[in-house]
Amino acid sequence: MTSTRRAVGLRILPGSMTVLAICAGLTSIKFALDGQPHVAMALIGAAAILDGLDGRVARFLDASSRMGEEIDSLADAVNFGVAPAVVVYVSLLSTSPAGWIVVLLYAVCIVLRLARFNALLDDASLPAYTREFFVGMPAPAGAISVIGPLAAKMQFGEGWWSSEWFVCAWLVACSGLVVSRIPMRKMHAVSVPPNLAAVLLAVLAMVAAAAFLFPYILILVLIVAYLCTIPFSVRSQRWVAAHPEAWDEAPKQRRATRRAIRRAQPNRRSMARLGLRKPSGRSMARLGLRKPDQGQ
User: Fold this and answer.
1) Which of these ranges, 3-12, 189-198, 229-238, 242-251, has the smallest mean pLDDT?
2) Interacting residues of 130 by C-beta distance below 8 A, sequence separation 6+
3) Is there a contact between 14 and 55 (Cβ–Cβ < 8 Å)?
4) Average per-residue pLDDT in the chain?
5) Contact present, 246 and 254 (Cβ < 8 Å)
C-alpha cells in the first residue's frame, strides 16, 4: 500500500510542476501591476525553468499522459504568451496607443506557434531529423526575448531601448520569429563531446552565478547568443535535408559524415573561398570554348 501511494505521488509530480509554472506566470502579472517588474521577470524565469523540467521529470518517471501534454501546452500559452506580454505592456507600453495592438499580436502568435507544434507532433510522415529542430522560435525563448527591452531598462535606465517605437518594433520582430518557418535546433539535440563536459559544467556554474549577480545582463546575453545560433541551425537543417543517408545517424556520426564530405571536396572549398566557380556550358559557349572531347 505504501509503495502504491508513493508511485501515485510521483506520477502527479510533473503535473504539479506545470501548475506551479502557471501560478508563477500569472503572479508575474500581479507584481507588474504593483510596479515591481524585477519580481515579475524573476517569476517568468521560474516558469521557464519549471516548463523545462516537467516534461523531463514525466519521461523519467514514466508519467507522461495526454492530459499532461494538454496542460503543458495551455501553461505555455499563459506563461510565455500572456504573462510576458502583459508585463511588458504594463511596464513599458501603457501610454502607447499601439502598445496593446503589438501585445495582442505577440500573444496570438504564441498560441498559433503552440498549435502548430502540437500538430507537427502527430505528423508521422515527417523525417526523423525534423525532431531535432523547432519550427520557429520556441515559446520560452520568445518570452525571454520579449522582456529584453525591460531588462535593458532595469540595467541601463531609460534609453532608445525602452522607447515606445523600439519596444513595439521588437515585439513585432519576436512575433514574426515565433510563427516563422525558420528551423531552430533543440537544446537536447545538441551533443557535447566528452572532453568538453568539464568546460560545459564550468560555464553552467558561471551562468548560475550571473543569474544572481547580473540577472539583466544575463538575459541580454542569452538573447544575443540565441539569435546568433539561428544561422547555424538553418545551415545544419539544410545540410541534413539534402543528405537523406544521414537522417538516421546519431549527431556524432553525422558530424563525421560532414567532415568526410568536406575532405573529399577540397577543390570545391578552395574555389568557393576564392569566389570562383566551375564555368557552365552556357558560359563556355559564350566564350567560344569547347570541351576537350568535342570534335572540330
Assistant:
1) 3-12
2) 120
3) yes
4) 81
5) yes
The 10s digit of each residue's pLDDT in 235-270 is: 888 888 887 777 666 666 776 777 777 777 765 555
Of 31-45, 96-110, 144-158, 239-253, minimum mean pLDDT range: 239-253
Q: What is the pTM of this model?
A: 0.79
Q: Is residue 123 part of a domain?
A: yes
247: helix, coil or strand?
coil
| Residue 176 domain boundaries | 10-185+195-242
253: number of Cβ within 10 Å? 11
Handedness of CA 233, 238, 244, 246 (dihedral sign): negative
What distances in angstroms separate CA 195 from CA 191, 198, 200, 249, 253, one per listed residue? 12, 7, 10, 21, 17
What distance in Å separates the CA atoms of residue 53 and residue 46, rounded to the nearest whole number? 11
pLDDT above 70 coverage of the chain, percent = 79
Question: In terms of Cα–Cα distance, which of 124, 129, 146 is closest to 186?
Answer: 129
Inter-CA distances, 20 with 24, 48, 164, 258, Å: 6, 11, 32, 43
Judged against a pLDDT cut of 50, whether residue 207 lies above it is answered with yes
Distance CA 110, CA 116 (A): 10
Contacts 24+ apart (CB under 8 A), 208-215: 211/45, 215/41, 215/42, 215/151
Beta-ladder partners of 135: 183
Q: Is residue 5 part of a domain?
A: no
pLDDT tens string 11-25:
677 788 888 999 999
Amino acid at position 258, single letter: R
Tally of structural domains, the chain: 1
For residues 148 and 92, the answer to whether their CB atoms sit within 8 Å is no
What CATH number has the domain bearing residue 213? 1.20.120.1760
Report residue 195 as a C-alpha cell: 572532453
